[in-house]
Amino acid sequence: MSLVAIVGRPNVGKSTLFNRILGQRKALVEDFPGVTRDRHYADVTRYDKPFTLIDTGGFEPVSEDRLLVQMREQSQLAVEEADIILFVMDGREGLTPADHEVCGMLRRVEKPVLYVVNKVDSDKLEDLAGEFYALGVGELHTISAEHGRGVPDLVDALLDHLPAAPSDAEAEREIRLAVIGRPNVGKSSMVNRLLGYERVVANPQAGTTRDSVDTPFTYNRQRYVLIDTAGIRRKGKVSQKLEKFSVIQALKSMERAHVVLMVIDAVEGVTEQDLTVAGYAYEKGRGIILVVNKWDAVAKDQSTMKRYQEELERTFKFLSFAPVIFVSALTGQRVAKIMSEVEKVAAEFDRRIPTAMLNKVLAEAERSHQPPVFHGKRLKFFYMTQVETRPPTFVVFVNKAEGVHFSYQRYLANQLREAFGFSGVPIRIHYRDRERDRKD
């Protein structure tokens, strides 16, 4: 799909326009500059020509503030990637020297640019918007992204520049990979290292990434989408509305992902927040890889890694199936191993086991360890079948499902893992009464 980038100075309403075109509230919107710091991608499929829309941090050409400089760099990258550009200006504030400078830069990119004057929500402001013709551009699109005024005409003009979607093109099968963890554990640096360039803002200030940021890429001929999420904090620590929305975005990113990289700070060690974040991923049934970052900063001897891994196994008891990789996003140490592990976990996430093989394991498990007694009668298991993948989900038919004790459920899950592996993948086993199933 074509890439459409929304660019402009901070706080001119780019994210509001992004949400308006997308048709849902996906980007962060707050009434102060600098809220949107990274490029933010979303596929827009509600029109006859689908496209990918990119929201960006604002240009601030004269600023030397490090964060604003990084935001400018991100916007410039978006312009380089985009096929069409929406340059948004503030109709209430009027034409500024920064608008002139950005406009001059856009003239040099040799791509279609639609010049948009936002916050024009009255006829009076419509008249005042004429000053923007001083930029020497052809057509101006005056809109109010907040109220929707003029946006349909802008979208029509945008669609005129887009190529028709191929009628016989099939969407390529993709694997979605989310990078999760507490704030400031190095998630954005990890994304940049994996991709080989500075895709997202990496800044020592905790909480720099507020939106979930999607980046498509290909590895070993397989299409992936890498999702860099805002750092999740415990509910009691999330005070501002902005931070609360970031948590929602991160959780939604897990819902969209197939595999998650759970990033842990090797220097700080495992914290209660790490357990909370990992618990979210486990509850959502995602493939999980534990990535211990900043390993270069840990004082080590010959057994340090072994001791650390044993500590992880004790702490993350519910993630005993998850592989562990010790890396340094700063130096690149072992980062190359991550994608090969992702391939394995993604394959397990999609794995389907024939019913005959499952029932062979079930019968052997019963012989090795008899089912429990319930109300004076021993439970009888009839058969097992797999009903879903992503994650692998099984149903076991039994004479009294309520009598299957938790310890025996765990035993059967372990038998499945011993027989079939499922490395990095949670498995779900549901128990149903055979008689009730027949009635249904």
How does this model look, in words?
Residues 2-166, 175-350 form the EngA-type G domain. Keywords: GTP-binding, Nucleotide-binding, Repeat, Ribosome biogenesis. This protein has 440 residues and is of the alpha/beta class. The chain folds into three domains: 2-160, Rossmann fold (3-Layer(aba) Sandwich), CATH 3.40.50.300; 174-349, 3-Layer(aba) Sandwich (Rossmann fold), CATH 3.40.50.300; 355-439, GMP Synthetase, Chain A, domain 3. It is 34% helix and 22% strand. It contains 13 helices and 17 strands. The protein has helices spanning 14-22, 66-81, 97-107, 123-128, 151-160, 187-195, 241-256, 272-283, 304-315, 336-349, 355-368, 406-420, 434-439; strands at residues 2-8, 40-44, 51-55, 84-90, 113-118, 140-142, 174-180, 213-219, 222-228, 259-265, 287-293, 324-326, 373-374, 377-378, 381-388, 393-398, 428-433. The chain has a six-stranded mixed β-sheet, with helices on both faces. The protein has a six-stranded mixed β-sheet with strand order 8-9-7-10-11-12, with helices on both faces. Strand 8 (213-219) and strand 9 (222-228) form a beta hairpin. The two termini are 45 Å apart.
Largest sheet: 6 strands, mixed
What level of helicity do the residues show?
Answer: 25-40%
**CATH superfamily (homologous) name of the largest domain:** P-loop containing nucleotide triphosphate hydrolases
Task: Kindly provide the radius of gyration, computed on alpha-carbon positions and rounded to a whole number of angstroms.
Answer: 26 Å
Q: Write down the oligomeric state.
A: single chain
Structural class: alpha/beta
Overall geometric form: elongated
CATH class of the largest domain: Alpha Beta
Strand order of the largest sheet: 2-3-1-4-5-6
Number of helices: 13
Strand percentage lies at: 15-25%
What do we call the CATH topology of the largest domain?
A: Rossmann fold
Mean pLDDT: 82
- The SSE order reads EHEEHEHEHEHEHEEHEHEHEHHEEEEHEH
Protein name: GTPase Der
Function: GTPase that plays an essential role in the late steps of ribosome biogenesis.
Subunit structure: Associates with the 50S ribosomal subunit.
Keywords: GTP-binding, Nucleotide-binding, Repeat, Ribosome biogenesis
